[in-house]
């Protein structure tokens, strides 16, 4: 194996991801040939090769992490274990999954990390969850939703109040209003969009009988107030489908198993 070049004379501009151009954080992923750093989330999308050197492999540089630990501080959000460079703290706090917000339905403070558990156990909201091949739901709507070939099917005309769909990394809020269903979509990670198709009564002349809408999920709870879609309240049926969503379950573990040994 060729020797790995490591320099500790690093400036802030050296610690910029070569793909997304954001400040990198731990784990520090570096290439063999020089001080080219990449975010962990970015490198798993480019075949474990350095985007600058192209053919140079990358590794987890634990030694460098120890050397520059005095320049790093812990995230102040309870539950978050990330160590950050002092100049990147504010950027991280804006998107940290442990940042606390008010619940959409009961105003309790919670984070994205605790959202699903809160909705199922502490919040007075009906819910449906599909995870690991199994479906569960609150009693009030269990008879009116089922797993289809591509996603979920709902009988909206029988669902009396607001509910939440939890589908893998997605959380989709359906708030029942006077004239519309307000639909808000949240994803725990970067992913593709979802599609919702709804049907109106055949007697309706106000809207198209069959309509498909595409929604790009938000990634922060504080963005949901401005990002929403509407479905007419008279809609009778609805289908929910994930489009082009990659399954990267356990991607973190598989990636670190393939990295070069730390130096």
Can you characterise this structure?
With 263 residues, the protein is of the alpha+beta class. It folds into 2 domains: 12-97, 2-Layer Sandwich (Herpes Virus-1), CATH 3.30.40; 101-242, no CATH class. The protein is built from 5 helices and 18 strands. The strands form 5 sheets. The chain has a 6-stranded mixed sheet with strand order 9-8-12-13-14-17, with helices on one face. A hairpin with a 2-residue loop joins strand 8 and strand 9. The protein is elongated and about 65 Å long. It starts with 28 loop residues before the first strand and ends in a 5-residue tail after the last helix. Residues 245-263 have low confidence and may be disordered.
Reconstruct the topology from this structure.
Layout: E1 29-31, E2 37-38, H1 40-43, E3 58-60, H2 62-67, E4 72-74, E5 83-85, H3 89-95, E6 101-102, E7 109-110, H4 112-121, E8 126-131, E9 134-137, E10 145-147, E11 151-154, E12 163-167, E13 170-176, E14 180-187, E15 194-199, E16 210-215, E17 229-232, E18 237-242, H5 251-258
Parallel strand pairs: 8-12
Antiparallel strand pairs: 1-2, 1-3, 4-5, 6-7, 8-9, 10-11, 11-18, 12-13, 13-14, 14-17, 15-16, 15-18
